[in-house]
């Protein structure tokens, strides 16, 4: 354990480390032909938004889900985003082991908070953890639909594998809506509060 | 819980709308010379991570803070990221009005969840809201430090204005650590759990 | 008013300010799915070229139109490119007020020249101003067609709104040609002057 | 005036051709280490703005200079931006020959307008042509200064060669101001018209 | 001739020069609508891979072909990638003259090695040289197919001209396979060695 | 083994697979702050060029080294570029196992050619293999120097680790020249062959 000053430095070190996720690509999209795919941070952001929405629909705790979603890929600062095909060739330590290293120098309250959320997510035993994972998969499906609207014609396998992994009814219904929908529908949504006032 | 079909479509429409934040730039960095700055989604992701850490240090609720951070710039799908200088020339509706439009077609449970969090954040009256805003400012400061390490020499005003806006002691101490620190320190952190095992 | 040395510094300050337009995106394209859209500078360049061509076709002054086109979005260094949907939520000062600030420290001859052209453009009372605005809209339509050829399938609303805004017969006929045409037709144009010689 | 249908198609073909300049890089910056340099369109836009300012300072016609600046690199759709070192190895047809091919299918009024401006610019015999070329060189110098502020430390040769090529006193004084100045000075300019009102 | 220390400096100078090819675009793709096309280095890499495969199929020396492919566009540090249409307007020195300048300060063994390979490639008189050029053309065809899968609908002329230039039967059969194939087929290839073990 | 038509399809499938290396980043640079680093293809290209130069200096076979360099990272289509820190957490199959899968459907002559070169490289028992690995390390060092000239101030660890791994005297002397040198020195090299003629 470190003294208080070291704790703060340790927390800052982890914040800098997380900056890698703004630069690191979701590598699977390289296969689909995307030269500069979304970053892991971008995926995690919308996963957290989707997660809190799904939680509200499924009667889970939106804040807890949102927090787990923010953390769900943070290990990728150290192991990057391993694409599906790589699993034939690579064996990885559990995510909880990576997180343990990442927060080792953080203040105990920070380390405990993050460790508990990652542990809960990885165990997949609470409704919140299940909803958070569904958010991860649904976000991937939606991004695949968006890449298709941007011209990439090789995204069907991402849609199919994401759709198949969904566990909650709300996520499955949202996936159906995504596949039936149109990314720009919101631009023609009914007149706004502001306009009405 | 809701199972109206239109509700699900409305939720999906908002998820597509949020996709804009993966593409939309944090516009302030254009002034600092960055051609392709971080996206709003990238900023929001790390803000949420910083927020939960700050919450743990300040005795606030990390999950609630994390959720508010995820939402804090979601209005920018509709108004973009207005840079500081633009405030001389533009008058904007309150963020709560934008959020009201964004969630109008969502299932009530979703709309209520998001509205409550945005309203709390904008009011700045709870510890969680204050911590979430500190996370927003601290994240900007850290990004400025990182851009300086990437060669951009015109970031001091972002550091200064972010530092001056911090309210909590933990955020202030983290800012000091950021300014004294080094983005790559974590690469030489002590041997890992895995290596020890 | 400033002395001569200050004038030159003021002019240089405005030139640096205009550099933002090389980095700042035409934000509307973020909605259409474009991660890194054209810059405002790129749009303004071709608008000026289109403007001088339209002027020649409509019997207006090509040089004057070209100059107004170069200036028509220069205010966006300070207010960025406000997308259409944002107008529900934002109220902006007139462009002439922004220009007044931008040229306040320039030599009087420079300030007067720019102010006069911006004022004429914003008033939309001369043929040159009308042609310049048509060039702005037509350039947007052509860019939409090009993005469609690059794979983006959500550009129809930009085509429709641009087409509807055109005032001159020449711009309308050019828009029809754009919609019927092909961006690469010029590569197979008849043998060149040089080859014939 | 022309109303031949082929003419309009020809004009549109040239407008599509000019779209290449939004994508084509100013190749010299590749040597300075810039992976994705400014486009030719971006350079041409600010050249036109600088040109009208220089014209106002030198007593030349700002509109005419602006128009020549917009056109000064349009030949590069067909020959790209040949970097300085390539001139050891390449011999190029005159720009007027390229322009002749580009406008051959345009309406005569368009072709005549563009041809006259390019011819005047290439001949370098009028004050407007000299000012337009100074704008081209000064814009390059300013961009070099900006790239240096963005971290690129190998731009001195672009500054030196651009500075040496300047002919007018105003351009030389602006170059001195650029080298003494700071790209962000405008952000702290005195309070605006709007704020005062 | 230079002394030993100068030789090493000369070799290093050429290695730095080759770094330009990582930044320099294959300019032809700008016409097809690609804002940030592959670099010359990227094209050359896969050309070398294709070349060694073609060599194995045609009974040529794979290593020799691979080496010629690596070198085949290295002159473009100095003359950039001249697009097809530019040949109407530009006359270029032979590639061997550019190479001679590039290696003039290298150690004699290096200069001789590179000169011999470039000379052999340019003469197109050996099977290895013919196979290397076929690799260049086939790589372009494959990239065109990939860009089409990424949404760009204007690549047919690159496919046609590349296909027409192929000389060897193996390259022609590979081109047919490329046009009939699918860039992602490998992701569903039969179970791997590793999985079987 | 497959029939002839299947062989060609298998070869084409591998060529498409290699296209991933044009899009996949050298992930280590994300840590150094580079948002869009060089691709694996770009690194491999210059590695092959450096390799043939080193081979000439060390008396090895330049063509064989060049071929091994082209192949040395081709496994990364399936496992991506695993950064150094990830080795704490990941265990990977040997590269030869990945290559075996990649070429399994290729014509036997192709499969044998590639397998032999990869096997030789991985064994590191021939002079050519040692020189090829030195080329890999030296290329990384040179890229680090170039990124430093582009503003990234956190590259020293890449320079140090690459320098320490070099085995041949020529590579060590070239590394010293790189650290003493300047990426743009070649632009002011003595007058060219062409100029002299």
Which properties best describe this structure?
globular, disordered C terminus, Hypothetical protein af1432, 197 residues, 12 helices, mainly alpha, homohexamer, 65% helix
What is the structure about, briefly put?
6 copies of one chain form a homohexamer. Chain A is an all-alpha fold and 197 residues long.
Give an overview in words.
The structure is a homohexamer. The first copy, chain A, has about 200 residues and is mainly alpha-helical. The C terminus of chain A is likely disordered. Chain A is built from twelve helices and one strand. Chain A starts with a helix and ends with a helix. In chain A, helix 5 crosses helix 9, helix 9 packs antiparallel against helix 10 and helix 9 runs parallel beside helix 11. Chain A has one domain: Hypothetical protein af1432. Chains in contact: A-B, A-C, A-E, A-F, B-C, B-D, B-F, C-D, C-E, D-E, D-F, E-F. Chains A and B meet through helix 1, helix 4, helix 5, helix 7 and helix 8 of A and helix 1, helix 3, helix 4, helix 6 and helix 7 of B.
Rounded average pLDDT of chain A: 93
Low-confidence stretches of chain A: 191-197
- Give the quaternary arrangement of the chains: homohexamer
Q: How many β-strands of chain A, per DSSP? A: 1
What would you give as the CATH superfamily of chain A?
Answer: Hypothetical protein af1432
**Approximately how much helix is present in the residues of chain A?**
55-70%
| Total separate domains of chain A | 1
The total count of helices of chain A amounts to: 12
Shape of chain A: globular
N-end to C-end Cα span of chain A: 57 Å
Largest interface summary: A-B, 76 and 77 residues
């Amino acid at each position: 354990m470190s003294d208080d000053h070291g704790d703060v430095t340790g927390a800052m070190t982890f914040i800098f480390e997380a900056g890698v996720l703004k630069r690191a690509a979701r590598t699977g999209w390289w296969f689909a032909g995307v030269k500069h795919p979304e970053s892991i941070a971008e995926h995690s952001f919308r996963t957290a938004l989707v997660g809190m929405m799904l939680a509200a629909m499924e009667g889970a705790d939106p804040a807890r889900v949102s927090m787990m979603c923010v953390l769900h890929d943070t290990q990728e600062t150290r192991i990057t985003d391993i694409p599906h095909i790589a699993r034939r060739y690579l064996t990885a330590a559990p995510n909880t082991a990576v997180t343990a290293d990442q927060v080792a120098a953080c203040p105990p309250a920070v380390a405990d908070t993050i460790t508990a959320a990652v542990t809960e997510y990885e165990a997949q035993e609470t409704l919140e953890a299940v909803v958070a994972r569904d958010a991860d998969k649904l976000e991937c499906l939606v991004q695949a639909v968006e890449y298709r609207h941007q011209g990439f014609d090789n995204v069907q396998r991402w849609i199919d594998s994401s759709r198949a992994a969904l566990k909650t009814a709300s996520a499955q219904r949202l996936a159906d809506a995504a596949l039936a929908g149109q990314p720009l529908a919101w631009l023609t949504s009914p007149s706004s509060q502001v306009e009405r006032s």
